[in-house]
Specification:
Ferric Hydroxamate Uptake Protein, Chain A, domain 1; 6 helices; Arc Repressor Mutant, subunit A; elongated; 3-stranded antiparallel β-sheet; 34% helix; single chain; alpha+beta
Length: 166
């Protein structure tokens, strides 16, 4: 984890990650975009590689870099709260949530939509045993030991467009 924080502590490295998230790039092209030498770029890349944030493909003497997005998501999962409960079969996912956290729901037709967990408002998806469920939380009945993952849909800015009117 310390390697990760070290890698992200440099604004140059975070900008490199942002650029590499958009496209794979050679070290020399990355150096040129940043206006720094290839050796300095290579030092930054080694730190990002040690943290597992980027991967390198060697094509002859050329090195192409790409972001390891799975590692970025995995790091964020390290901060996830984990709870365990016991409950009878055929109870709903919504029943399980009520036993473990303070939730707020919104009824839309016959569906209960989760809109807040422990005061954190937003929209949530849920997975049961690694599969995204396709039924509402109040309708999904638990039949066996299961792992429930709640995933908040976080609005991450993909692009900013600044518009100037004439």
């Amino acid at each position: 984890m310390n390697l990760l924080f070290k890698a992200l502590s440099s604004s140059t490295r975070t900008k490199m990650l942002k650029m590499l998230m958009k496209e794979e790039m050679h070290i020399s092209a990355l150096a040129k975009k940043f206006g720094i030498s290839v050796p300095v770029t290579a030092k930054h890349i080694k730190i990002l590689e040690k943290a597992g944030l980027i991967e390198r493909k060697e094509i002859g003497r050329s090195h192409v870099l790409k972001v390891n997005s799975e590692q970025i998501y995995e790091v964020l999962n390290a901060f996830t709260e984990v709870s365990s409960i016991k409950m009878p079969k055929d109870k709903s996912i919504l029943d399980a949530l009520k036993l473990t956290c303070n939730i707020r729901t919104k009824r839309v037709s016959d569906k209960e939509l989760l809109i807040s967990i422990d005061g954190k408002e937003g929209y949530y998806l849920y997975e049961v045993n690694g599969d995204i469920a396709d039924v509402p939380m109040n309708s999904y009945k638990i039949k066996e030991d299961s792992e429930l993952k709640l995933k908040k849909l976080i609005p991450i800015t993909e692009k900013i467009i600044k518009i100037t009117t004439r």
